[in-house]
What we know:
CATH topology: Pseudouridine synthase
Number of domains: 1
Strand content: 35-45%
Number of helices: 4
Largest sheet: 10 strands, mixed
Mean pLDDT: 94
Amino acid sequence: MKIKILYEDSDILAIDKPSGVLVHPDQRSKEKTILDLFFKKYPKIKIVHRLDRETSGVMLIAKNLKAFEFLKNQFINREIKKTYHAIVSGSVKNDRGVINKPIGRSPRDFRRWLAGRGARGELREAITEYKVLKRFIDKKEKFTYLEIKPKTGRTHQIRVHMKFLNHPIVCDSLYNPNKPYPAELSRLALHASSIEFKNLKNETIRVESSLPLEFKKVVK
């Protein structure tokens, strides 16, 4: 499998992760991961942040420990700007909004996270901004195309917050199972479109990933 490189310098890689590819090895699967695919060429690489298996788009990889710590600090200090595009179920009422709801564990399913009432364990701050780009109907079902900017980086944050809003992401087997979806889509409708960060020369870098073809067909 060949992964497209969107940006590279002596310390940092930004790749275009395909949907369906794991970032880290999974005990339940023996398939190649992002880490496997780049480890041979870059034996000191470290994953700075994750994208869920079915999420596509821009992902940063540090080539060495110094770059890893440098980028990690930017994530901790919320200096890195990320933009996603998503297609969700239903017609989102407000053109813009901010979801400010802490996230904890689901009491019913260890794989799931939960925002708001009923969440268990440590509740961690989570903030997500969204903007409606288009509302549309496909086979008599309503959908909304969104631009989403997470201000924090919790596990499944966007998926959990959109579920909390009662507009879960299309084709999300964990948070929106067995619900209608546009004919052209058969994967999680979440794409990491861009990321902005500083490299080790303190230059501001913005990297973009083109919208996947299946998204374009749906929101044309």
